[in-house]
């Protein structure tokens, strides 16, 4: 069978490490975004300051109330969720009823809801066709993409996927 997995780029951690100021942590995360992956380097050659400001704005807008609302919409208890390392999105893992899931929280400054709807619909179409993919799951409201207003003219966009089995690409030597 054909196995397909989405590779999420390694989001900035919201919290600074002990002894590190939040702004220093944010600066380090932005530097990571700009330097880690070759496609990010190439992409950042085009309007890098605009992209940097958008990322800084997303980080500034994100707070615990956004996460709590996403958890409420997907029926996730506090003890069921943990953050994962990534950038461009805030990514969490949660467990419910013995199954594991991934909860990415992105922002409309980076990608609007329409392409995300298209992506999750495509993934689920592949799953229905028998392809081994990390299928998107619906929220408690029956939505594949939950939109949370950031109260600043943008939206956080939340999806959830069944966690694919495997390991990180860099650990597998890809």
SSE topology string: HHHHEEEHEEEH
Coarse structural class: alpha+beta
Q: What kind of sheet is the major sheet?
A: 6 strands, antiparallel
Number of helical stretches of at least 4 residues:
6
How many β-strands, per DSSP? 6
Radius of gyration: 16 Å
What are the key terms here?
single chain; 174 residues; alpha+beta; 37% helix; 17% strand; globular; disordered N terminus
Write the layout of secondary structure elements.
Layout: H1 22-35, H2 38-43, H3 48-61, H4 64-74, E1 81-84, E2 90-96, E3 99-107, H5 113-128, E4 146-149, E5 155-158, E6 161-162, H6 169-172
Antiparallel strand pairs: 1-2, 2-3, 3-5, 3-6, 4-5
Could you walk me through the main structural features you see in this protein, from its secondary elements to its overall organization?
With 174 residues, this protein is an alpha+beta fold. It is 37% helix and 17% strand. The protein is built from six helices and six strands. It has helices at residues 22-35, 38-43, 48-61, 64-74, 113-128, 169-172; strands at 81-84, 90-96, 99-107, 146-149, 155-158, 161-162. Strands 1, 2, 3, 4, 5 and 6 form a six-stranded antiparallel sheet that branches. Strand 2 and strand 3 (99-107) form a beta hairpin. The chain starts with 21 loop residues before the first helix and ends with a helix.
Write a compact overview of the structure shown.
The chain is α+β, with helices and mostly antiparallel strands. It is built from six helices and six strands, in the order ααααβββαβββα. The longest helix is centred in the C-terminal third of the chain and has 16 residues, at 113-128.
């Amino acid at each position: 069978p054909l196995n397909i997995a989405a590779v999420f780029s390694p989001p900035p951690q919201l919290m600074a490490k002990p002894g590190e100021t939040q702004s220093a942590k944010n600066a380090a995360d932005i530097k990571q975004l700009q330097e880690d992956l070759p496609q990010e380097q190439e992409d950042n050659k085009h309007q890098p300051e605009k992209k940097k400001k958008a990322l800084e704005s997303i980080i500034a807008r994100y707070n615990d109330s956004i996460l709590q609302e996403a958890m409420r919409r997907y029926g996730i208890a506090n003890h069921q969720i943990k953050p994962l390392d990534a950038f461009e999105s805030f990514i969490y893992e949660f467990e419910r009823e013995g199954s594991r899931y991934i909860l990415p929280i992105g922002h409309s400054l980076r990608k609007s809801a329409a392409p995300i709807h298209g992506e999750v619909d495509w993934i689920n179409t592949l799953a229905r066709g028998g392809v081994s993919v990390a299928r998107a799951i619906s929220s408690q409201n029956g939505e594949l993409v939950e939109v949370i207003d950031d109260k600043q003219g943008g939206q956080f966009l939340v999806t959830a996927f069944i966690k694919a089995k495997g390991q990180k690409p860099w650990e597998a030597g890809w």
